[in-house]
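It would be a great kindness if you could assist me with a short task in structural biology. The matter concerns a single protein, recorded as an amino acid sequence and a row of C-alpha cells. Kindly check, if you would, that the fold set down in the C-alpha cells agrees with what the sequence suggests. Thank you for your consideration; the sequence and its C-alpha cells are set out here:
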Amino acid sequence: MARLTLWEALAEVPDPREPRGKRHPLTAILGLTVVATPAGMKGLAAIAQFGRDHGPALAHALGFRRAKTPAKASLSKLFRRLDIDAFEAALSRWLSARQEDGWQAVALDGKTPRGSADGDTPGVHLLTAFVPSAAAVLRQLRVDAKTNEHKAALRLLGVLPSQGKVVTGDAMFTHRDVAEQIRQGGGDDVLIAEDNQPELKAQTEEALHGDADFSPLPASA
C-alpha cells in the first residue's frame, strides 16, 4: 500500500475561504509554508519572499496556477482563518506514515519558543512529541496557563501513535496515569525518578539492585 503523500495529507485540511475569488489552491499555499519553514523562513514575510525568490519553477512544482506565489498579506489573511489544529494534524499523519517503520522512540518535551512573548504577554508554551530519528515534531499542544504539562501530556498521548514505541520524558511526566496511558496505547515508557519522588526512586533501585547494568547516579549528578 502506498504511503500517504504530503499533498494528500494537506488536501485534508479544510479551506476556510469562500469558493469565489480564490487565486491559489490551499494545498499549494500550505506546501509553500512546509517547504519554506525548514529552510529558515520564520515569518510570513520571509515565506512570501522565499516563494518569490524561487520563481515560477517552485510555484508550478507546488501546484500554483500562476507563476507568482502569494504575498505576505494573502498568507496573513489565510492563516488568521485556517484551522491550525487540522493543519498540524495533517502534517502529523504524513510524518507518521513516512516514519511508521523507521522510528521507535518519541520524546515528550515542553518549551517556550523564543520570540513568542509580546510585552507583558507571556510566551506561548508548547508541549511537543519529538521524534529524534526524524528530527521532527510529530505533534504539539499549547499548554494553557490554566493547566500544566502533566495534564497536557495526557491529551497529547491520546492522539499519538505509540503502538510498539518507546516514549521518554523528564521527571515532569513521571506520573502513574501518564505511564498507564502509554502502556494502554501499546508502548513502553522511560521516565525519570528524581529525589523529590523518594518512594518511587527507592522502589526502582530495589527492583534493579544487583543488576550489573544498573549504576545509580552519584548524589552530586
Notes: The radius of gyration is 21 Å. The chain has a mean pLDDT of 82.
